[in-house]
Amino acid sequence: MPRLTFLNPHGKGSAPLTVDVEPGTTILDAAEHCGARVGHACGGNLACSTCHVWVHEGLDSLPEVADKENDIMDKAFDVRPESRLGCQAPMADQDLVVEITEESLRAWLDENPDERKKALAGR
User: Using one digit for the tens of pLDDT, what is the confidence trace for 94-110?
Assistant: First the structure.
């Protein structure tokens, strides 16, 4: 079973989180399952860019970026060649290492106001 490692799963500087993931599971679904803070304002319906991640390892194992994903990616900040939308990136048989963008973390905190309050209180 492939492994998915999230960098910054609970914010900048948090310890990486590695989980086993069934092939076919999207990065976003895996994040939801393990508690990694990947935003998903549209519910994973390819209508926003809040699940934007950078794929550091295993990018070639993901399906090609479709035109619709590319169009939505235009809404994201700091888009790089290794950028993907987590809702559109299903795991294959290869391990992945992804970094959760600050944009995605902010979106997750906006979607979870109680966690945002805890994060602000911890500063």
Answer: 999 999 999 999 999 99
